What we know:
This protein is an alpha+beta fold and about 725 residues long. The chain has 24 helices and 21 strands.
Amino acid sequence: MLYRGRMAVLFLSMAALLIxxxxxxxxxxxxxxxxxxxxxxxxxxxxxxxxxxxLIRDAESGQRGFIITGxxxxxxxxxxxxxxxxxxxxxxxxxxxxxxxxxxxxxxxNGLIRPKLKELADTIALRQTxxxxxxxxxxxTDFGMxxxxxxxxxxxxxxxxxxxLLTAAQQRVRDAIWRRDWVRxxxxxxxxxxxxxxxxxxxxxxxxxDRAAAETYRQKELLAVTLASIGDAVMxxxxxxxxxxxxxxxxxxxLRPAADCIGKPCGEIFxxxxxxxxxxxxxxxxxxxxxGTVVGLANHTLLIRPDGSELPIDDAGAPVRExxxxxxxxVLIFRDFTAHRDAAERMQRANADLAAAVKxxxxxxxxxxxxxxxxxxPVVGTLQAWEESxxxxxxxxxxxxxxxxxxELEARLIDDLLxxxxxxxxxxxxxxxxxDLHATLRAVVNLFEREFASRQLHINxxxxxxxxxxxxxxARMHQVFWNILKNxxxxxxxxxxxxxxxxxxxxxxxxIHFKDSGIGMTAETLGRIFRPxxxxxxxxxRRYGGLGLGMAxxxxxxxxxxxxxVAQSAGIGGGSTFSVSMPTVDAxxxxxxxxxxxxxxxxxxxxxxxxxxxxxxxxxxxxILRKAGHQVDIGGTVQAGLDKLGEKPFDLLxxxxxxxxxxxxxLIRQVRQNSQIPAIALTGYGMDDDIxxxxxxxxxxxxxxxxxxxxxxxxxxxxxxx
Length: 722
């Protein structure tokens, strides 16, 4: 009775263990599938959002075509897209993947779409009833353009939020798979341990038939029941690899009844190959008999079944020993691996989709940068030519300075967009050196002299710090101070004050405080001032404009150089204070501040080939270079550039990257086959990868549009000093 009680306890324990392991395994698998489905839902949600934005662009394209041509057939994209926009919005709202935050964003997006659709309908109606001039009067108000910009911004913010949710879902998939695999491994080891113990006990009892034949029979029955109850496939062999037992699950996976398996060599029934090489894999039973240890299959193993079908499996084999350690056989547990492999493949596809989405985002930002920068070059060139011209009326020079300031501000906003992308990918370069912060501050303040004067702002410098040298990137600290002063100039009313104070703090820190008497900030605004694409609220954004990137970039730049940037305000009307703290370094290590020097444009006139398809840009660059004494030929395509290079020798090649029949990279690669002419890339593509591609293709230098013509002249002097 005591033995029977022990066996009952073992059976109940094993049954409970099996039930728990099966339940846990099922729950882990359910979580993997649930997380995988969430990843797929996030991708689908992103596609729906992209489709909605595309429909709005289609409607706008149809409106533009009709207004320009007056032909009704140009309205087809508009008429087709119009009913689909509401369907797309409703689909996004009804999508289970739409969180409460995304739903609020959808409400804001819908609030932008409605006036946009009304503007489209109104201009179309005006074109139909009152003609082209009436419609363009509405368009010239820029209302439609501004609303479309807001739609893109809102959609971009939603896409970014969805990407964050997607990344979190993918992490949950990985965590769930990891937890499931560990649970299975632990459960398998425990199962094998229990099975081995029971099997050894039965084998020992069989050798004592004279005393316990009936008890041995009952233990064998218990083992059979236990093995048959396991959720995985179980196969038991003797020391000669002949099968002595298979459970029902094994029968279903092998597609063979137990009667066809018992007594046969394991290798004859359990035929396995490597999925990738298609070569036979050694039976784990043979490995266990050879080594006497637990053995598992490698990945990508297929079970070949009698009907020719192939089943992905994983398994583990363990030795069955007597109490004295004598090997009596092998127990093999294997399972269908199809669901796990499918989940892994879905995860791999999801990662590939995410990588493609990130790449598409970077390409989109690079393209937008190029399209925004290119039209600025002829504007900057024309303004510079006017400023340098003695014929330009003196009464208009202040207006000219104002125009140039705003164009440079536009270029800075584009740079901010690129910097945010670089920060997100970890590609923002920092070149640190010993820097004089006081000299840098004075240089930035000089840049704002005209702006402060036009707004009647009083600037007060109190540079009292005794230690003011830091290890930092000169250009990046210049950018930080420029952004802070730009905010001060923007948000301080006419006649206000801007004070810059430097002081030494504890632990060898230097602190720079920028205090203004401007509109101030609420506690809510202070909480989000350093978040990308956020400002002080919708009212402030409408009134003062801007992208909300400058302060976010500035904080990242300061922190990347071991500093801090914080903001304080006494509230609305109480002004604002931005404080930069940096560790100081030995002043003797600091390089002297660069002093501007007057240099001639070049030492001799040059024959220059300009390859540029943007007519206005080409005209302005040629005008400025001719004023500097150079001869300039223009080509608008890759082929035209090659033809001109073949007609006569040139001293210098200037080329855009985006050309109608190829790229500037194609041009320079062909040129470098037989010429080492100095070459400068002039392009609106300014990402780090763009610069590297230009250098690798053969360009000597890379300048980003809008072209700074002083920098262009300096670069020419550097490449052709004599």
